[in-house]
Design brief:
Layout lengths: L2 H17 L17 H13 L4 H8 L3 H13 L3 E5 L7 E5 L1 H22 L4 H22 L14
Antiparallel strand pairs: 1-2
């Protein structure tokens, strides 16, 4: 299959994947307690990388500073992040995840993992490993082209 045709097929599947919003909100989470997508992404990035400033968010995501000012203000207001001194000794204030933010992120992540686990329950181990490897490769190739890598923790999947 040529790359253009593959791109068209992948675009459609990614569109359909993002439509499956029920994987994003764990069952049993009270209304209003679920994190919206931007909060989930920012808290996940802070968890993976550690405290970040607005300019670091801009560099990491390639979006306008006003976007992060608005998003971090909402996270501050809800008690999910706090301002902290730069752990490296710089003068800029950075945002870090609060215990409440970590707890809400962990709850939402557990719900997402539960949903994915249900979807993948009947997949054979070798197919799971291959899917993870391919998805990681897809993401790291995008990151290489954009120059915006996502910090990853943990080893690649183990072979079955």
């Amino acid at each position: 299959m040529e790359a253009r045709r593959a791109g068209e097929e992948i675009e459609r599947e990614l569109l359909i994947l993002t439509r499956h919003r029920e994987l994003g909100t764990p069952r049993g989470v009270r209304a209003g307690a679920a994190l919206d997508r931007s909060a989930y992404v920012l808290l996940s990035r802070l968890e993976a990388q550690g405290p970040m400033s607005i300019p670091e968010f801009v560099e990491a995501f390639g979006l306008a500073a006003s976007t992060f000012t608005r998003q971090t203000s909402a996270l501050l207001d809800s008690g999910l992040v706090e301002r902290a001194l730069d752990p490296a000794g710089g003068t800029a204030r950075k945002f870090r995840v609060t215990e409440e933010g970590r707890a809400r992120l962990a709850t939402q992540r557990a719900g997402i993992v539960d949903g994915l686990t249900a979807v993948l329950a009947e997949w054979p181990a070798d197919r799971l490993v291959r899917f993870i490897e391919d998805l990681r490769r897809f993401n790291t190739d995008i990151e290489r082209l954009s120059g915006r890598p996502w910090p990853r923790n943990g080893p690649p999947p183990a072979a079955p």
